Amino acid sequence: MTLPERDASALEVRNMVAAGDVTCAEVVAAYLDEATRWQSRLGCLVETFGDDARTVARAADARLARGEPARPLEGVPFTAKANIATKLGETSAGSAMLRGFVAPEDATAVRGMLDAGAILVGKTNCDEFAMGSSCENSALVPPGGPRTTRNPWDVARVPGGSSGGGAALAGATGWAIHLGSDTGGSIRQPAAFCGVTGHKPTYGAVSRSGLVAFGSSLDQVGPFGRTAGDVYAALQAIAGRDGLDSTSKDIELPGDLGSVPTPRRIGVPREYFVDGVTPEIERRTRHVIATLAADGCEVVDVSLPHTRYANACYQVVSTAEASSNLARYDGVRFGPRSESPGDLEALYQGSRGDGFGAEVKRRILLGTFVLSAGYADEYYERALAVRRRIRSDFVRVFEAVDVLICPTSPIAPFRVGERVTDPLALYACDVLTVAANLAGVPATSIPAGLDSDGLPIGVQLIGADGADASVLALADRYQSLCDDHRRLPEVPA
Amino acid sequence: MRVGDYEAVIGLEVHVQLSTESKLFCGCSTTFGASPNTQVCATCLGYPGSLPVLNRAALRMAVRAGLAFGSTIARETKFDRKNYFYADLPKGYQISQFDVPYADGGVVSFVRSDGSDRAIRLTRIHLEEDAGKSSHDDVSPVSRIDLNRCGTPLLEMVSEPELRDAEDADGFLRTVRETVRWIAVADANMEEGSLRCDVNLSLRPVGSTELGTRTEVKNLNSFAFVRGAIEAEAVRQESVLAQGGSIVQETRLYDPERRQTVSMRSKEDAHDYRYFPEPDLPPVDIPVSWIAEQSSHVGVLPSERRRLMIANHHLSDRDAAQMTSTRELAEYFEATVEAGARADQASNWLQNELPQWMNEHDYSLTELSLAPAGLAAILAAVDSDRMSTATAREVLREVLASGSDPDGVIASKGDQLSDEGAIRSLIDQVLADNVDAVARLQGGESKVRGFLMGQVMKRSRGKINPKVANALLDERLAE
Q: So which residues of A are the catalytic ones?
């Protein structure tokens, strides 16, 4: 047996399995050991499926031993965010409201990973109902870890959110794929904070069936991985039109990332280098652009003028949809129910009052308000109009360039507890990521080195609707020119 | 309807459950009467992660209904969320249609008892999912929720406020029921809740053209309750206005035992439904091909068929109504006439001989082996005096029971004897065998003629045409 290197990509692991250098069982056992070692420092997992994963791995080894061909992600360990349905374990979405909820079916994305031969090893922590940028809003206490999920590069800091658990584990380890979800940056911002590649697919490219809904017109399931190639392979496994999600569609994902033409025209959107982006982050982003320019890319300054309204627009649209999506949680059919209520009204109030955390309640209130009679025109309807403008900004700019490059997060990972009492400061972190969700376009965050504090910096690549392959091809090209994405934090003692 | 110095202005909201096999947004069965909470799945229970997928068969049926009422069918339509909390609404919102209903306008036409024509315009028809069913125990403080109905496709038809009294409402509802059944999109049984009605009613001084403040009486589930609620609510509003009071805009319920409406919730407590476009369902294109396809299923509606039966076939109003009581019967009748039967005769047999046999043998019209052309052949044999009515009944019963070819049975049962020469010789035989009787008849005993005629019929074993025989007997006796 030769175990893969610690920083090996998922595809390298898969190829070693396919070549018979290592078995699925050996990979899974070693990965579970590694994850457990990190868990005590990071608290990234809320559940681990050791026994099940080992059983599945042995079955996969038996298949290979019978001479069946290795599947595209054969033997690759993967995790799912707590808001993605798995028949194994709980699908709590990080909420007390869904404590103990077992989903009747796997999410379509999970089934895609399983069908590709990946092995589910656990569920990762997240902000409650994916609402947050720090993973501090989870109602779950990660077993055997700190009270909240931490950043592998500095355990005093947050991993970002809402998909913080998956990002933290991806930042600490190689080998695996981690499924997250992104409504306003919930994959890309933690990917930037934890130094990994994370992709928010084109809206509809991945089925939302089995994803606990937050903002239905914005939500997308997407993968974290070590490399653009890993993320692309995972995307191929989970993407595609699904009969269970009417908003899903097929996008072009040619067989091999190497066969996708590398985009040559790069747009630098001026509105994304605004006040509030730290100088170090801006410098690293410009360095990535310069590297690609030196590689032969044409660099064009572009403008997306409605970007400055994107965050306000996002707050209205996402909370409006959330207020409706979260109405079903009443403690009656699933989730914990308020004890001995007086009447139906008291049952609802008790269950919802106890079950939802402060951030979720804040967004339900906000969303209810912006849809209310007398206010809907001023807020919700206006937000829809702004959203159309934002979308046409992107359509127009992608006539001139192939991919936009900008920072993912304006700031470096902050300290645990630092922003938890200031929701507006937290919402401000989303400023560079929400527009892609509003426009439905694909966006990837790639690692672009460390800042002077040794914290990761992420750079965002945004593509046109359906151009996920182009975005990842450019990310892959950049990763062939440097080894930012290979860096891992030191192994804990 | 006049109440004191006022007249009533009435609008209806009618809910019609479409008779699809499965629900509007999931694959669950819609069969009525299953054990509570057995026809449910993650989607209609609103489980986290579940998503709605439109049942296109329901939209097709909805389009058919829209065409039947003369509505304009949208080229593209969309769904919206109507948000409210209720125990029988698992998602906390109903998927409905707000600003782009699939069908716009339309009309419901009927004839009042005094013969006057009414045409009530529709504002719109939209497609939405039904909620579950709550039942409240009168004795113990327990409510039960059955979610089988949850997600069943519903049409909501909204009329303009153009109805004036309970008879209009009755005519409107009966026409809606007849039409949706006719085009086979709904059972529309008020007792099963597959046809439900809300009444909006206001009063205004006679002669005024302004609308007064209205109330809504909800959840009326029988024709009698609709009539009762309209009459009770009009009287209540009149007494409020007559005493100088004003009407509060509110939702009311009808109590059929006390024949009164009672307040349910006022405008202040009214729901703010916070409609917004359903993000889980993209806008839906309605293919142009559906219009032609569904129009062909609508065909000629019963009111028009009645008009044609009266105008072209000279049926009475009553017979025309009978012949259009179901689409199958109307089509059977028309095909029978088309095949050469006399319309009055066809109507008569389709109201008497056929239903009698079908009742005895528990058959429906569509299960019969007898084609309209076969019935026409039997009726033609009677009409051309080739067969007596009695023989024709026998032929019909035999054909229905055996499924054999009517022409063959008509032939084998023996054609009625109309040949004058043969009848004459038969009469001669009878007269020769009954010389005494002939003598008594000629002696003035006139009732003996009946005996002689009976003998003639008996000898022919009933196959003789009695009209011809009578005439020939008279002729022979007069010689």
A: 81, 162, 186
Average pLDDT over every residue of B300-307: 92
Task: Determine whether the interchain pair A101/B90 forms a contact, defined as Cβ–Cβ distance below 8 Å.
Answer: no
Position B418 scores a pLDDT of 63
Nearest to A107 among B49, B87, B276 (CB): B49
Cβ of B48 and A328 within 8 Å? yes
Question: How far is B168 from A285, CA to CA, in rounded Å?
Answer: 73
User: Nearest CA to CA, how far is B189 from chain A (Å)?
Assistant: 31
DSSP letters of A408-425?
S-SSPPPBTTSSTT-HHH
Which of A84, A334, A368 has its CB closest to that of B274? A368
Residue B268: pLDDT above 70? Answer: no
Interface residues from chain A to B (CB-CB < 8 Å): 84-85, 91, 93, 98, 101, 103-105, 107, 208-213, 215-217, 243-247, 320-321, 323-324, 326-328, 330, 332-334, 344, 348, 368, 371-373, 376, 380
B416: confidence class by pLDDT, cuts 50, 70, 90: low
Identify the CA nearest to A97 among candidates A340, A353, A321, A345.
A353
Distance CA B154, CA B20 (A): 10
pLDDT in tens, B187-201: 999 988 899 999 999
Pairing of strands B72-73, B215-220: unpaired
Instruction: Give the CB-side neighbour count of residue B63, counting CA atoms within 13 A.
Output: 25
* Mean of per-residue pLDDT scores for chain A: 96
8 A C-beta contact, residue A352 and residue A128 = no
Token pair 């994370």 in the structure block, residue: A198
- Selected for mutation to probe chain B from A371, A372, A377 (highest B CB count within 10 Å) is A371
- The H or E element spanning position B196 is strand B195-205
The overall average pLDDT reported for chain B is 91
Core vs surface per residue A178-189: b (16+ CB within 10 A) or e: bbbbbbbbbbbb
* pLDDT top residue among B425 and A17: A17
- Residue pair B323/B333 in contact (Cβ under 8 Å)? The answer is yes
* Predicted confidence (pLDDT) per residue in B332-360, tens digit: 999 999 999 999 999 999 999 999 999 99
The share of chain B scoring above pLDDT 90, in percent, equals 69
B276 touches chain A (CB under 8 A): yes
- Look at B51 and A320 and tell me if their CB atoms are within 8 Å: no
Q: pLDDT digits over A36-57, tens only?
A: 999 999 999 999 999 999 999 9
Q: Count CB atoms within 10 A of the CB of residue B283.
A: 12
Note whether B279 contacts A: Cβ–Cβ < 8 A: yes
pTM: 0.90
Measured between beta carbons, the chain A residues lying within 8 angstroms of B79 are none
Residue of B nearest to A323 (CA): B83
CB pairs below 8 Å between A and B: how many?
Answer: 93
Q: Which two three-digit tokens encode residue A78?
A: 């993967």
Count CB-CB contacts under 10 A for residue B244. Answer: 6
In chain A, residues with a C-beta closer than 8 Å to the C-beta of B90 are 328, 333
Set out the domains of chain A in order of their start, with CATH numbers.
10-305+392-486 (3.90.1300.10)
**Residue B417: predicted pLDDT:** 65
Which domains, ranges and CATH numbers included, belong to chain B? 2-288 (no CATH), 300-412 (no CATH), 420-478 (1.10.10.410)
Q: Does B248 touch chain A (CB under 8 A)?
A: no
Letter for the amino acid at B55? N
pLDDT digits (tens, 9 = 90+) for B196-239: 999 999 999 998 999 999 999 999 999 999 999 999 999 999 99
CB-CB under 8 Å, B85 with A327 = yes
CB atoms within 10 A of CB B233: 27
